[in-house]
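Following up on my earlier thread - several people asked me to post the actual chain instead of describing it. Fair enough. Here it is, all 447 residues.
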Amino acid sequence: MALSMEKISENKVKLRIEVDAQTFENGLEIAYRKTRNNYRAPGFRKGRVPRKVIESHYGDSVFFEDAFKELMPDAYQAAVKELEIEPVEQPSISIENIGRHEALVFTAEVHVMPEVTLGQYKGIEVEKVVYNVTDAEVQAEVDKALEKAARYVEADRAVQEGDRVVLDYKGTFDGVEFEGGSAENTTLDIGSKMFIAGFEEQIVGMKKDEQKDIEVTFPEDYPSKEHAGRNAVFHVTVHEVKEKELPAFDDEFVKDVSEEFDTVEEYLADIRKRLAEQGEREAKAKMEDAAVRKVVENATADIPDCMVEDQLDAMLQDMRMNLMRSGIRLEDFFEYTKSSEEDYRKRYRDEAKTRVKTRLVFQALREKEGIAAAEEDVEEKIAKMAESRKLDAKEYREMMKPGDLEYLRDTIAIDKTIDLIMDSAVYVDPGPEPESEAEEGTETAAE
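Reply from S.P.:
Thanks for posting it. Predicted structure:
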């Protein structure tokens, strides 16, 4: 097999592949044997028509296409291996010469993995991120716990924001009931925004056993086209009015909600500790993101459009799967948001290109620095994952799907690459906040 390669552009090459005449003849014979059941001729049983008879009847080129399909993939892969190139897409194939007793010649144009020129990746300046737990954040966690432990008690008064009501409602369009517009003894938290705009607001002020007609308009982008933009009347009957009662935040509350702590002081200290740990993780992630972003910006690489399109395909597929978990089709999502796949591709094209470049830069760093996941790293990671699921490491490994191990190795190598960048990073103080921001923060705190 004769080969030549021409560079068309920065990351695109044109291969010229020549398959000798004898190999092509063998391909013709294979094509004949695979397709001979498709041909009939007088005096011959099905599948027994000689090749020469078929060729004389249909022409010498009758098996050319099938022979080419038989030979091309292996010839192309052999060329890729011999030339040591790494294609990033399916090739565009053109036949230059094909004929009986002649060499088969075809060309393959294909984008190849782009070369990455690394810039500075050691000693990167990173603005230091420091997280300080505020009293307001601690109080917010306390409030969440109190809300979770809240109970609702009957209130002998009109409905207020934050109340829980039990009611019946019957919806109509122009006096005619519509499907899904009625319910009995349903519970509604006022202020939850679970109903369309204007419904809950008009419940406020009603009393137990009171009836009322509520007029609302369905939004134009409502999922059901039969409802969208239409005016509706809901006849509402309130059966119960309950107000939220929060428990007292004291030692007894702490003992009720926690098995570890007995006092408010211990409980608050634990909240502050957990918030600090979470803040440190977030600060670390922010600094890593900033450093990686600089390393990627410092590198140069000419990214082929096909790699960006493939990345967008992957992002769309992830989006499709995430929506499916919520019972939403991607097509329906685009319809609801009055957008399209084309809009998505335009909006996230730069993000996709950055992801591709980041992946290529990390690969180049790993090759230059000899970074790889050692077997002990893999075993340690598996042991931790198994422990978190209360499984034996061997049992967990047996449960892993094909490809999981390679993904795990890749993840470990990425973490090591980030560690390499961060270990040499130069941390700089962000400096004092601008006076206007500081004043604004003071005012907010005072309020």
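DSSP finds 14 helices and eleven strands in the chain. That should answer part of your original question.
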